[in-house]
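Rotation project, supervised by the postdoc (A.L.). Task for the rotation student: set up a whole-complex structure prediction and record inputs and outputs verbatim in this book. Inputs entered:
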Amino acid sequence: MVKIHYQFKRSTPLRFLSHLDQQRLFQRAFRRANIPVAYSQGFNPHPRMSFALAMSVGLTSDAEYGEVIVSTDIDVDTFIHRMNQALPKGLEIIAAKICGEGVESLSASLYQSDYRIRIKVMPETDLNELAASVRMYLELPQILIQKRNKKGKYVQKNIRPFIESISVCADAEIDHVNVKMTLIYIEQQCVKPEQVLASFNDQIRAVFVIDPTIELHREKLLLKVDA
Amino acid sequence: MNNYIEKNILPLVTKPITYLGNEVNAVHKIPSPEMIRFAFAFPDTYEVGMSHLGMKILYGLLNEEKDVWCERVFAPWVDMEEQLRQHDLPLYGLESMLPLNVYDIVGFTLQYEMSFSNILNMLELGKITLRSALREEDEPFVMAGGPCAYNPEPLADFIDLFVIGEAEEVILKIMAAHREWKKAGGNRQDFLKRAAQIDGVYVPAFYAVSYDKQTGLITAFSPIVKEAPPTIRKQFIENLDQAYFPEKIVVSYTETVHDRISYEIFRGCGRGCRFCQAGMIYRPTREKTVPTIQAKIKALIDATGYDEVSLSSLSTGDYSEIEALIKNLVCDYADGKVSISLPSLRIDSLSIEMLEEIQKVRKTGLTLAPEAGTQRMRDVINKGVTEENLLDTVRTAFEKGWGHVKLYFMIGLPGETLTDIEGIADLGQKVVDEYFKIDREVRNKSLKVVLSTSSFVPKPFTPFQWMGQNTREEFKQKQRHLKASIKDRKISYSWHDSGVSFLEAVFARGDRRLGSVLEIAHQKGCRFDGWGECFDLQKWMDAFDEAGVDPDFYALRNRDYEEILPWDFINTGITKDFLQTEAKKAETALTTPFCPDACSNCGIMEFKKGWKCNG
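Outputs recorded:
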């Protein structure tokens, strides 16, 4: 049994995959690529594979992590090569490494996510003013949002500790802006970039038009070992 | 258009990934001016259409042709339709994302009558003129095939040409005719005249129908151009083992209705159930050989990465070498990473043994279809299943740990009485009793028996094609009676709404006069009639009213054996005499044997010279 951690990209053609779609896709790609994926024991064996994060529908990313356990040795170059032949356009493995025993699980080792967001803004939004407002927002000692907990009850959560930085810049289209955002993981918890933008709208002023046409892109995903 | 849709429309709809055509094994070609652009249209959602085997075969087959690019198009779900209409964007072929009206041919597959309104909606969304008579020279030819094409008449106004029977060979002949026509130059009529001369092609515009003013019955049906033959012979593939089957099939990203490799092991069925259209029109029975099946399944798994294969046919247990096949497949996939499923099994305990051997089944639900509640009724429909068969089967299943049994029945069958309805409840009770006979230690902890009824729809080319359907009131009464006859709390009852079945009966045995009804219903917004959340019977009744067409004339009337039926011009190889004999035998509950046991002279052996069934 060997554990392989791999890094992959997801681009526009496949950004609409759901988490489940993507799981199915990888399972089938492993089989097409003839990767000797190990199966769980039990009555209903399933392939031993997982992702560090569940990607939301619409998200593109330059840096996702996946994990697969194989039953026989395979060298990483072969793994990458065969997988990239089997994966459809829109998904690509960019790196892989064989992990030793006792390596922390991927989801436990997440550290930081860098996002680039292209989003529509209210008419006549001035970029300089917006930049100033963002600074104001970040200076808030705490930023509370309403969040449903597992029991379905609304609770308040302070998201300020999860925000490392936010900056805004112009877009080719006048009614859009690009937002760069660095968010961090604390004890496997995080905040979603859309939630940050929504809380900005609440706390400072309604600038961002949050609808399904928002374009979210993850530029970097750092693990604790990288940081 | 491509980029605009991706950015502005797809984020707003459910299942956006199904509108992009970029799946693994989807075919993308570099277009050239001489290329024939073919849009294979499935008039239902992506998830339903992508489960359909015929589409996979023809998609692969057409794309093997260098100068043909076959793409796919499905009925957009209502949210996508709304977006397309709002943005005034046309429905498009998935692979190249070109508007439907620029293709050379748009070919619909007709799997069930309740998808007819979707055809009109898709044509409209694709900006194609609905009525073939009004189509401009540069519009696509609209083609249709599949089981419902055996009575093409309700769609005669909208379809330029129909393929009657199995399309694998005919469709290539149509491609050849299209090539020659393009080279020779000519108008739409010229192409259609070429096509009409191909065996198995029906061009409705080349035929005239006349009706009796008083009774509304058909008085004559005949060709009006010399190129059109008076009868259309259905086409079938003689050597199924050698017939084309794709090595690669498109792998959907989303979960489809049948999300697995479906591999056809034989075509046709010799059981002769009298209600079953497929059992008649797909005759003769033709099998693939065990080595072919094994090799093809292996190749398909390699090309797709699927981990489940289902062996498809009309009655899987009737495959002549079923035991050898299962033994070999179990051996091929002994590592347990690929599972094999056997749908459409007959009711016998052998079936359960086979299931045990081949499937890693979670023993939750077992579905069986006795179809009728009493032995007399099962003999009327020639189902060939006895109560003993059924009880043996459920006993075996209960012994193996199953606890949930679902039984399918039809109500409204010919000559049905309330005793037959009560028989359904009795059978349910006997199943419950079987469960309690099993040792507590062995049987499943919980028991659930579900009785489910659908409302019988008489179909063309079956022995019941002359029979009137029950009225909705009769169906309701029977449903109430059945519900009242069920005494045990372990038994639950579910039924299908008879409104849909009524409409299905109208269109299954309808004629050309229904064209205007379809058009009006379409204008009223009818589509996805097979989907409970979209079906609106009232709109349809209004459409019948406005068109001045009486739906009862088609659905409820008992027809005379001498009457000219709308589909009489099609020769399926099964003679009308045979169907009539079967209808008469049904009246006295006389059964007809399974084909391999004794030939009942259905006509198929005379239909094609040299053909011999079962060997």
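Student's summary: Chain A touches chain B through 30 residues (CB under 8 Å).
Supervisor addendum: Residues 2-103 of chain A form a domain with the Alpha-Beta Plaits fold (CATH 3.30.70.580).
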